[in-house]
Amino acid sequence: MTRKQHISIILILGALCTISPFSIDMYLPGFPAIAQDLQTTISQVQLSLTAYLIGISAGQLLYGPLLDRYGRKMPLYAGMFLYILASVGCAFTTSVDALIAMRFLQAIGGCAGMVAAQALVRDLFPVTETAKVFSTLTLVIAVSPMVAPTVGGYVTTAFGWHAVFIALALITGLILLGIYFVLPQGKGPDSTMSLKPRAVLSNFWNVLRNPQFLVYTLVGGIASAAPFAYIAGSPDVFMNIYKVSEQHYGWIFAILSVALIGSPQLNHLLLRKYTSEQIIKAGLTYQAVIGALLVYGVYAQWFSLMTLIVVLFLFLCGQGLTNPNSSALSLAPFSRHAGSASALMGSVRMGVGALVSAAVSVLHNGTALPMVLVMGLCTVTGLVILLIGGNVIKKRMSREEQDEIATEPVL
């Protein structure tokens, strides 16, 4: 693979991964306008975000077996076309219930890109490079929260919130062209992979039985849910509590997204000296400390708008240390079932994200406390699972090594 091909593939894979962040972030500044136009409340509009996350979680379980059976591209094309149609449906909806339903379908289509991108990383790059590739993808993904809310705020102000979904459809159309002309096929169709429910469930079960996959998928899924609490709660916190405009909210979101850009670059440097396991543990410990400060500061009413932004920034800096390393460690044991493993990993992450965003909506009390409390709990829970699960993995690996030694022939 030439350097030019390497860069082109990374850019397309990164673009596939940005479909969902754009879908989540770009319409956030329009929450008040959507609520007013559809004659509902912001908490009801937040449920359209929850529906999107549920759709991603469920859809990934569908695409995993399809990607293993039919290869990477055909299911990907089908998903992208569904996403474009559902985006147009969102633009022309006239009720919050219809918006929630269209967002669910939009997610079912869009999640094909997430699953395919992760599986293609496993297909196209050596295992020793996957953590670095995932770190690069995390950087590409991290740029989207800087751009999406800011652009969404101006689009909403200039053309109305409906135009945001038309823009999403057009962006995805451009990505679809890149998939067709630039992206390699990756692993081809495997006719031995059955799509019968029993066989599919058996494949998923074989993946789940792997302790390394289970531990790091849970750690990554729960820890990665913290930003979903921030995404779900921040429109209300900044625009209703602190009374900032749609455009100013977009810029605040962009500033906080810088935290998600710097940490993957730090991860690149740390991987030269430390293992992924060590980096995850340090990153979650750091976030747990900052999360505790965040919760107590909001409870004690310490924070002005600026100080809240600063502490949120410090908290989000830890995300780029957890996500790429947990992804690489989750998928490392698999080759043939990489699509199913990728689907399960993504499903767990988005499923937890859906629960977290719903929890912020349910706990809504007119303050920032529900948002920051859920963020802190995600990080602490992820750290606890890592500490317990890491010991389980080490004991199992040690036992397997002893078994191998015991079964070696005596010469």
UniProtKB/TrEMBL annotation:
Q: State the annotated membrane topology for this chain.
A: Multi-pass membrane protein
Where does this protein reside within or beyond the cell? Cell membrane
Q: Which residues form the Major facilitator superfamily (MFS) profile domain?
A: 9-394
- Where are the bilayer-spanning segments? 45-64, 76-94, 100-121, 133-155, 161-183, 213-231, 251-271, 369-389
For this chain, one GO molecular function annotation is: xenobiotic transmembrane transporter activity
Which UniProt keywords are listed? Cell membrane, Membrane, Transmembrane, Transmembrane helix, Transport
- Cross-referenced InterPro entries, in alphabetical order? Efflux_drug-R_Bcr/CmlA, MFS, MFS_dom, MFS_trans_sf
Main location (coarse class): membrane
One GO CC annotation, please?
plasma membrane
Q: In Gene Ontology terms, what is a biological process of this protein? A: xenobiotic detoxification by transmembrane export across the plasma membrane
Note the Pfam families from the entry.
MFS_1
Q: Which family does it belong to?
A: Belongs to the major facilitator superfamily. Bcr/CmlA family.
Q: Which PANTHER family match?
A: MAJOR FACILITATOR SUPERFAMILY (PTHR23502), POLYAMINE TRANSPORTER 2-RELATED (PTHR23502:SF132)
What protein name does the entry list?
Bcr/CflA family efflux MFS transporter
Per the UniProt entry, what species is this protein from, by scientific name?
Nibribacter ruber
